[in-house]
Design brief:
alpha/beta, Rossmann fold, N-(1-d-carboxylethyl)-l-norvaline Dehydrogenase, domain 2, 2 domains, eight-stranded mixed sheet, 8 strands, 52% helix, elongated, binds NADPH dihydro-nicotinamide-adenine-dinucleotide phosphate
């Protein structure tokens, strides 16, 4: 009999499978449930117990990990067995918006459970690695009580008691990830139109990205001080540059939706009277959503 805390994992997509696997590796007794039961096969071979109902999954132990597509899936899965939520600590590692996670936390609390929100910042291959990180938020006491077990998955980064905070930090990372990667795809399309492969531009692309942390810290201090003077860069100069980017892509015959959206934002900044200010003044526009 293991002395480690029993854990239930509900949801066995790539992420839930990796998580259940990491708990097994850590010596935890693991109970699993998934809508499509066959996704538990490998885990069962490794010692997990597959149960036939959500109620059995919830009552197998105190700590229940959810790894579902989103919070709507949580309601779909838990609603019919919600009487079994009382006394459970639900660690919801499904992604969704901060508002949806707050509503989900209320829903669980109203049924007598404790809800911790999680935002996993790594793909399944990063699970089981202490150097990986997951944002958590919700009631601190239950989080601290279960932190040692959760550390079988990744390192933990507790952001506060508001259940939406973990989702917020996760989404902050995701908006940067998606927009940055689209910038990279655009660069690859432009390179391809000019006979260059992704591998050809990789060193230059990588070098460009390594300069970004310096820009982030330089502008963070100024933006927090609402300092947008054009002493280092000017929006008007940036306007000319982003138009060159748009025309270079148009000339190459590649899709221009992304560079055109960038030009549109710069133009709105010019129209708002920020021409002589830093291009960080665009943050003011973005804060006001137009
Ligand atoms: P998947 O969408 O592949 O897996 C989803 C799981 O949710 C499956 O077990 C699926 O069951 C179940 N599910 C979805 N809808 C329902 C429903 N209506 N009723 C019952 N079960 C349902 O996601 P991942 O495993 O990749 O990820 C899980 C969560 O982790 C997501 O929120 C994702 O955003 C987040 N995440 C994922 C990362 C990744 O790289 N994969 C990285 C960081 C976060 P079934 O098997 O029956 O279809």
């Amino acid at each position: 009999m293991s002395s480690k805390q029993p854990v239930t994992v509900i949801g066995l997509g790539p992420m839930g499978q990796a998580m259940a696997g990491a708990f097994l590796d850590g010596g935890h007794p693991v109970t699993v449930w998934n809508r499509t039961a066959s996704r538990a096969d490998t885990l069962v071979e490794r010692g997990a117990v597959l149960v036939g109902s959500v109620e059995e999954a919830l009552t197998a132990g105190e700590l229940v990990i959810l790894s579902l597509t989103d919070y709507d899936a949580m309601y779909a899965v838990l609603e019919p067995a919600s009487h079994a939520l009382s006394g459970r600590v639900l660690v919801n590692l499904s992604s969704d918006t901060p508002d949806k996670t707050r509503a989900g936390a209320r829903w669980v609390t109203e049924r007598g459970g404790i809800h911790l929100t999680g935002g996993v910042t790594v793909p399944p291959s990063g699970i089981g690695r202490p150097e990986s990180s997951t944002f958590y938020s919700g009631p601190r006491g239950p989080f601290e009580a279960h932190r040692p077990t959760l550390e079988a998955l990744t390192g933990t980064d507790f952001r506060g008691e508001d259940p939406g905070l973990a989702a917020l930090f996760y989404q902050i990372g995701m908006v940067m990830f998606w927009t940055s990667m689209l910038g990279y795809w655009q660069a690859i399309a432009l390179a391809d139109a000019n006979g260059l492969s992704a591998a050809d531009i990789l060193p230059h692309a990588g070098e460009t990205m390594t300069t970004m942390p310096n820009f982030l810290s330089f502008y963070a201090a100024r933006i927090d001080a609402d300092e947008h003077s054009g002493d280092v860069d000017r929006l008007a100069m940036g306007m000319a540059s982003v138009e060159h980017v748009l025309h270079t892509n148009a000339d190459a015959g590649v899709d221009t939706a992304l560079p055109a959206a960038v030009v549109d934002l710069f133009r709105r900044g010019m129209d708002a009277g920020y021409a002589a200010d830093s291009f960080s003044s665009l943050v003011r526009l973005m804060k006001k959503a137009g």
